[in-house]
Fold this protein.
Amino acid sequence: MGTVLWEPPADVRQTSRIGDYLTWLERERGLSFADYPALWEWSVTDLAGFWSSIWDYFAVLAHDPPTAVLGDTLMPGARWFPGATLNYAENVLRMPGIGDDEPVVLAYSHSREPLTLTARQLREQVRRVRAGLAARGVGKGDRVAAYAPNIPETYVLMLATASLGAIFSSCAPEFGSRSVIDRWSQIAPKVLVAVDGYKYGDKSVDRRAEVEAIVAALPSLEHVVTIGYLGTSGDFSDLDGPDELTFEPVPFDHPLYVLYSSGTTGLPKPIVHGHGGILLEHLKILALHHDLGPSDRFFWFTTTGWMMWNYLASGPAVGAAIVLFDGNPGWPSLDTLWDLIDTAGITYFGTSAPFLMACRKAGLTPRKRLKGLGSTGAPLPAEGFAWVYQAVGRDLQLLSLSGGTDVCTGFVGGAPLLPVRAGVISGRSLGARVEAYDPSGEPVVGELGELVISAPMPSMPVGFWNDPDGSRYREAYFDVFPGVWRHGDWITIGEDGSCVITGRSDATLNRGGVRLGTSEFYSVVESLPEIADSLVVHLDAADDPNGELLLFVVPAEGVEVDDALRAKIARELRGSLSPRHIPDTIHAVRAVPRTLSAKKLEVPVKRILTGTPIESAAAKGALANPESLTAFAELARERSRR
């Protein structure tokens, strides 16, 4: 299954952090494992043994020790490390292996000159902002909101908020005011820190009117602090005071930050993550899976509205410096981020599958020396894997991972001990009991099934905000298979533990009882030079068991979607996939609707095509291109007149 593109070097156990961890397990716990599958099996079977080893191996700083590792394994409701108190920010700011005068945050932006913070400077900035927040009455449990991009101020604010035991929440300034209000009206923040605007490439975007609307809609706000990012004067530097940097000890599951589901329909789910769960999960995945440590500079292209920002933010906890970028990744060309590798000395480059596929399509050959390259946000097709090894570097480890905002991590991905094969996710993450379930709730191997997590993970949400009886939380993940987390993706797990994810299970294409994954379509259709982007939906039809399969394509510049191109697309789908994959109709559209984190909106489009008004089908402020929905609404009207 998949061509082997990279194999672990012979000395991987001597040179990688997971190798060092295996040595530690043998020395300290008397446990030895022949290979990754054996280690994974132990990690999801002996949950207490595994997660206590992560706590001890990384020497978690705690104020009070836990009385147990796992009180109860029932989901939802598993309680991790009861009795322990700690603070996420304290563990991040320990920055193991980074000297006081060494860089830990390197920030690049289209809005201002590059900025570097040493470990000493970062701690001092967090101390000052913490003191400023405390002087404004912010304490344990209060909410602090940031309408700000991926810049050092947002990072410092998050750590300062966490150090107080207060709760952080961020929205990227690309979000419209309605989307921001939908999120923050649920959590009632006390303090808002906001930019005046930002530059996207060479375009200035003023956000002062949006900030005014947000402030007007949030009566809970007691203080509004501004960052003069676009050029007006701000008062962020007034967040200051003489207090020393100390850390509020909080319980393991005390809220750290609130993240939100993409909110393409209805109010976004306010997902509460805890200090301890996020800390342990990120220590594990960044060090043992991405192999990050003190010699690394870790970059992931993200905004503050995507969980990958929170993922990147934990880099210093494993001793890696982090590289921040705010701006248009395609301006002045698609080379911008690749050039940043040399400028910032990036050793680990993280991005999205759509970005890699766009670079492939543009014929880029960046040729970079990297230790690792991460890809997420959508399944990466086999051609994307091949392009990375042909055009970027033969020696790097490509780690395609999938997870979600819900767990703020990837629960399937790779590890230095596993080979990389084209189009295949190398394995399941340590401590993540991922399985494929058939409709009756039985695990299957080598067959398409619902992606489930059948044992608790520490970074599962503490809960949803303002959901006292847990009913919204249970409904979101545990309504289909009681006691088992259903994630909403289709997955095939191989005998060797490797995984292929083929799209959202709620966007399933069901032709005559055969389930088809959307990612299979995109891999074939978007490999054609005539097609820039695509989206496929399946509509049920009362009189036809096959239903109706509609394919929407964005033609490349200068290309017309005519009968000849439609015939070519059909031929490619038939030859590469099957006759069942041939769409009933192929429509040209100007753009595929996407969220701000670049995910395609298959389900909202399906709703629009079946008569749901745009405003009910999708929250426009959460979309990168809300105007793209109009074409689908027009088609729905046209279809209803037939």
